[in-house]
Protein 1
Amino acid sequence: MYLTREERKMLDGEEGYAVKKSMEILVALGEIFGAEKLIKISSVQVAGVSYHNLGDAGLEFLNELAKDGKVKVLTTLNPAGMDLEDWKKLGISEDFAKKQNLVIDAFRKMGIIISCTCTPYLIGNLPRYGEHIAWSESSAVTFANSVIGAMTNREGGPSALAAAFVGKTPCYGLHLEENRVPDVHVDVKVDLEKFSDWGALGYCIGKEAENKIPFITGIKDASIDELKSFCASVVTYGSKPLFYIKGLTPGSEKQKIPKEKITIKNEDIREAYENINDDIDEINFVCIGCPHCSINEIAEVAESLKDKKILPNVEFWVATSRPIKQLADVRGYTKIIEDAGGKFACDTCLAVAPLKGRFKAVATTSAKGCFYSRGTNEMKTKLGDIKECVNAAVSGRWS
Ligand code: F3S
């Protein structure tokens, strides 16, 4: 890979340890994937923030980099393993909180914004169309590529961090127009009736379009929240972190319809629900906010919970970023949700908090949330819209 004189100096250690290590990572990656050069990026989203996933080895790695590493571009963080301000209410242990805070201290020293959300685009890390960025977190990467039209590969935590210290990333994969051409036509002949249908649709398309870029027809309209949910699901279940929806997402007008065609029908959506939903009735955990809730979603949760009481044996989380929670405070949604017995889980989520063994069954609006709850946290899962999840929280049953 070609390196400029300035980049060589970074690789030789002239800008210190963190930049040298970062250049080693970026050069190794570039060489594996055949990049010709590094390109400038405008922002970074770093995943791998929860101590639950990092462990002591990860914390040590971050502390080494934090000794002299400072990010060169706008850099935000994915969710951590706990609410950073009120972790006790979520049942997090003191030992875990201590370690998680050390992880956060290391990121803070590097100059990273402690945003702790997987929806950075809702709180100020919003690239423009065609901009090169280096993001990790699969749902955010898919949203950035597909809904915004920015250009990023699906980075891992270390490669995103390396890009932040250097301000550049290797130019390969989805940074090149020729690799952003769709390769499978997905014709959607489905009545998308409720919010969770978007997660189910992502499940169907992800499974069918395994490691391909879907060009989707048949969808006339979609809200940002629906697209956010679809992004999380389609990439979790198998597609590349980029899709086009004809007439809705940027760049779709420039693409030719691929020859390979699949059709998604109502019976596929039914089957998706059958596969995602376990055969259980009793629910003891409800989580809304995967990806993290927008203010509209929180408004809907509050509306559904008005004058209701969540059962004492059901844990109810609204996972969101702290700035969105502050909007919810001002709008009075927080009070309604907390009066009903719900909790805000800022800075964290159902997949990265240490939840294994705590809950038997979760109800959620997110197909991605079901994937991780079942796989990583060994819970039974139910996928439904906000009303169905709220209903499970107040009745303890799935109906
Ligand atoms: Fe975000 Fe956690 Fe879901 S990172 S997309 S809320 S699994």
Note: The pocket of FE3-S4 cluster is lined by residues 78-79, 118, 137, 139, 232, 290-292, 319, 349, 351-352, 368-369, 372 (CB under 6 Å).
Protein 2
Amino acid sequence: MYGLVVNALLILFSLFLLGFSGYPSAEKTSHNSDNTTVQRLTMVEEQIVGRGIKDRRILDAMRKIPRHLFVDSSLKERAYGDHPLPIGEGQTISQPYVVAWMTDALHLKSSDRVLEIGTGSGYQAAVLGEIVEQVYTVEIRIALKETADTLLHQLGYKNIKTKYGDGYYGWEQYAPFDAIIITASANHIPPPLIEQLKEGGRLIIPLGSTLYYQTLTLVTKSSNELNVEQMGGVAFVPMIGETKRK
Ligand code: SAH
């Protein structure tokens, strides 16, 4: 009970910080946007802060980004739930906590240039786009690439470049990267991605060949050696393309 009261107070305080003066009136904002704002702030308090993520930049990004726009409008009511959701073509937008956890593990700096493999809905790219200087994101399914690109553009992200292609090969033209995030599972790290990682750079990938369980793995490159840290269990859709053939 005490926890609920504290949460409610934190959410009201966050609403205040976001520029609301008390409860938003019907004239100021539509019912829907009020509703999604409250859902979004509740999501961050309960699922992200509640599980120990402290990086203010990540929390602020997730408080700001309208996650419900990254899923089909029929799923809008579930957009802030504690789970992944379908985004078409058998793919999913990750559970909010997993997005925060992976972003946190990369220890990003505002000057970083980050490569993402698996644009999907574009939500993870938007979170990165709020934190770092430049995001490059590669998607192998053209329809998803197009939808994400259009939305990211509409939302005003000028520091996110999208590309249609096989992420196995990274994005040579803009390499090397300070960090690489792979948001589809693979049974090995594609060698071109290791090559495109800067010295001192961090790479995160769900490693494993099982469909419903992989190990989130953080790799740090130093003196051309790889330091590998296993972070915990996750369930991602598999990478297709060259990675699958190897
Ligand atoms: N990061 C996404 C979720 C990713 S779901 C989000 O925030 O919504 C995994 C995505 O990886 C899918 O869109 C899938 O099409 C894509 N994918 C699978 N194999 C890939 C490959 N070889 N190269 C690039 N993208 C790939």
Note: Confidence is low (pLDDT under 50) at residues 15-31.
